[in-house]
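Protein modeling request. Please complete all fields; requests missing the sequence field cannot be processed.
Requester role: graduate student
Desired output: 3D structure, token encoding
Chains: 1
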Amino acid sequence: MATIADWVEGARIRTLPAAAAPVLVGTGAAYALDAGSVPRALLAAGVALALQIGVNFANDYSDGVRGTDDHRTGPPRLTGSGAARPRTVKLAAFASFGVAAALGLALCALAGTWWLLGVGVLCVLAAWGYTGGRNPYGYRGLGEVGVFVFFGLVATLGTTYTQALQVSWPAVAGAVGIGFIACALLMANNLRDIPTDRASGKRTLAVRLGDRRSRWTYVALTVVPFVLAGAVAPAHPWALLTLALVPLVVREARTVLGGATGRDLIVVLRDTGLLELGYGILLGLGLLL
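Delivered output (289 residues):
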């Protein structure tokens, strides 16, 4: 029977910065438009966090019942390890989606942006379809596309729009930057799992690219966001605060290009999550200032 610690691990805490970071940047962009709102930002954060946890439980369930998680180098999963019944994990995923839907409804009511409910439905469908259903797009090498669109563009620009009722160039640049780092987070995870994913027929982008090109792709995904921050700097000089994270980028790039495998990539995964959170905090603050 799964313990509380097992369920916390199943929620994949390391990935939660991918949910918080776009809200921080989107809120900073809204304040730059003189339209920031703390209550709406908190609701947006709740939606993003609930969706991320829902995605994690959905992936645990779907990969577990397919047998993809039977042989893992990372932490054991609830379904794959047998710690929890598949149906229970599936219910946890849909409960998380339900929380996200309730908070999203409150956010749309407060902002008067009812049309965004349709976007919310697409977010839930994309969250489930990543590894769920008969033809999951995560198994076809399109996981990074989904992450970029929904945890980059939609999460960041949606946060800005529900506060300012418009978006701006800094918001778009920040959304792309956040999306790229979120993709790097997924790439680090899938780079670690190339051998087992290939054996189970899960054709992630890392499997398709191969080990060497996946490592260089990871590096590119972590470097471009800082180029974008520099592009925003003429209008918002404080965006250069993000450069404080460059030493972390260099360290992780050296680790990945140095051939890190297995548990060493778990550390990279953790640090990439911290990189995304730091980028969200510093760029959001830079836009606010």
